[in-house]
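Progress note, sequence design subtask.
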């Protein structure tokens, strides 16, 4: 058995910390854990993602269709990763946006929260979370 969790957000939100906490909890429960981090422009408010794989796994990065849960600390980042995951993935989406630098640099306004949730919900189960 394996569980694949993808945590996404922007620099400064604690994406890596959340990944480490989930990993530590799984290790304390005697599960095998593999974690990978991608945080290129994290210090500048850029995109950050962490894969946490729990169970009988070796590779730190699962196939997109194997992701069971996406924890989106930043809603637009959740939307961005939505097409890259299988339809079975459940999305936990923080309701408090932190405008990604990519959106700011393009001079675009942040879309209404309900539009983001509706778009993700077209293909996935969405659980809105008041997390900030």
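Output:
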């Amino acid at each position: 058995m394996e569980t694949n969790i993808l945590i996404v957000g922007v620099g400064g939100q604690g994406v890596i910390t959340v990944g480490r906490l989930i990993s530590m909890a799984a290790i304390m429960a005697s599960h095998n854990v593999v974690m990978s981090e991608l945080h290129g422009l994290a210090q500048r408010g850029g995109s950050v993602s962490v894969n946490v794989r729990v169970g009988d796994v070796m590779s730190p990065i699962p196939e997109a269709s194997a992701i069971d849960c996406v924890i989106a600390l930043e809603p637009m980042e959740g939307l961005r990763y939505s097409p890259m995951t299988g339809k079975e993935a459940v999305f936990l989406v923080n309701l408090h946006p932190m405008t990604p630098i990519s959106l700011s640099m393009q001079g675009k306004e942040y879309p209404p929260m309900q539009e983001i949730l509706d778009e993700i919900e077209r293909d996935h189960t969405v659980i809105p979370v008041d997390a900030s």
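The mean pLDDT is 90. Work on this subtask will continue into the next period as scheduled.
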